[in-house]
Amino acid sequence: MEMTSVDSSNVESVGYDEDSSTLQIEFKNGSTYQYFDVPEDVFIGLRDADSVGRYLAARIKGTYRYSRV
């Protein structure tokens, strides 16, 4: 999965797999999470957000199934 660096104090990079609608987030602390059944527009919103952390908290956490990689 191709990862894109983002400007965030907590998130290192984000990536998206269109075939499986899987969002992957790599945090600066070294942990990586995959979120499942995420629409592509949500990934684009996260990638382009002024505050990646705020978008993640508001639109992704608690909404989509996830697994730590």
Structural class: alpha+beta
Overall pLDDT score: 97
The biggest beta sheet reads: 5 strands, antiparallel
Radius of gyration: 11 Å
Low-confidence stretches: none
Query: Helix amount, in percent?
Result: 25-40%
Overview of the structural elements:
- By secondary structure, the protein is of the alpha+beta class.
- It has one domain (3-68).
- The protein is 26% helix and 33% strand.
- The chain has two helices and five strands.
- It has helices at residues 40-48, 52-60, and strands at 3-5, 11-17, 22-27, 32-35, 66-68.
- The chain has a five-stranded antiparallel sheet, with helices on one face.
- The longest helix has 9 residues, at 40-48.
Helix and strand topology:
Layout: E1 3-5, E2 11-17, E3 22-27, E4 32-35, H1 40-48, H2 52-60, E5 66-68
Antiparallel strand pairs: 1-2, 2-3, 3-4, 4-5
Helix pairs in contact: 1-2
Keywords:
2 helices, 5 strands, alpha+beta, 69 residues, 33% strand, five-stranded antiparallel beta sheet, globular
Brief overview, please?
This protein is of the alpha+beta class and 69 residues long.
